[in-house]
Amino acid sequence: MSEKTVDIPEGIEVKQEGNVLTVKGPKGELTRDFSHPKIVTEAKEKKVTFRGDDEKRKTYALLGTFASHVRNMVTGVTKGWEARIKAVYSHFPVKVAVQGDTVAIQNFLGERSTREAKIVGDTVVNAKKDDIIITGTSKEDVGQTAANIELIAKVKGFDRRIFQDGFYVTQKCQPAGE
Fold first, then answer.
1. Tens digits of per-residue pLDDT, 81-119?
2. Which homologous superfamily is 81-175 in?
3. Do 2-78 and 81-175 show the same overall fold?
4. Domain definitions of the chain by residue range
5. 3-state helix, strand, coil in the chain (%, to 5)
6. From edge to edge, which strands make up the β-sheet containing 115-118?
7. DSSP E strands: which ranges in 26-161?
8. HSE (CB half, 13 Å, CA atoms) of 168?
9. CA geometry: angle at 118 spanning 100 and 143, to 5°?
10. Are 79 and 32 contacting, i.e. CB atoms less than 8 angstroms apart?
11. What is the pTM (predicted TM-score) of this model?
12. What letter does residue 156 receive in the DSSP assignment?
């Protein structure tokens, strides 16, 4: 049998209901399902343990993945996650606005229509001139929101060497403040 253990720091509360773990900290609460037929999840006394029922490579890989998910959840509820995007344009000034659960990009390449990117989960987006800062407790939600913004402003049908306008991720998902 193989196993991976993740130590939970002080001030963080972990609850287990079946294979669903809930991590609660000063910045919020995250819940994730760790269901898998070959892996048993156990949360006791400031430790989360994942046990595999065999010694196969795939089981070891899943154990490491599950342990990383828990570490990312702990980091999210203590520090939070942050990604940064830079708007690059040469002629037409781009206007970025947050409208509810979408990011609206106006005047991209001089287009009259507005391009909209979805904000995933409880992620917060702050747009200041050419910089967009995305913060949240879930690493997956912050990363997906950054990807949505980057993908919605892709230039299609033009030479990428000449038309370099777009939104580019300048800082991938990192713990906030680092």
1. 999 999 999 989 999 999 999 999 999 999 999 999 999
2. Ribosomal protein L6 (3.90.930.12)
3. yes
4. 2-78, 81-175
5. 20, 45, 35
6. 95-99, 102-106, 115-118
7. 28-33, 39-44, 47-52, 81-88, 95-99, 102-106, 115-118, 124-128, 131-136
8. 7
9. 120
10. no
11. 0.90
12. -
Per-residue pLDDT tens digits for 16-54 = 999 999 999 999 999 999 999 989 999 998 999 999 988
In the numeric block, the tokens 């430790």 are attached to 47
- The rounded distance, in Å, linking the Cα atoms of 102 and 162 is 29
Separation of first and last alpha carbons in the chain: 37
**What SS3 class is residue 80?**
coil
Q: Give the DSSP letter of residue 94.
A: P
- What is 2-78's CATH topology? Outer Surface Protein A; domain 3 (3.90.930)
Q: Residue 103 corresponds to which tokens in the numbers above? A: 């990011």
Helix 57-78 vs helix 139-152: crossing angle, to nearest 10: 90
CA atoms within 13 A on the CB side of 86: 6
Cβ neighbourhood burial of 23 (10 Å; 0-12, 13-18, 19+): buried
pLDDT recorded at residue 16:
94
The per-residue pLDDT for 177 is 76
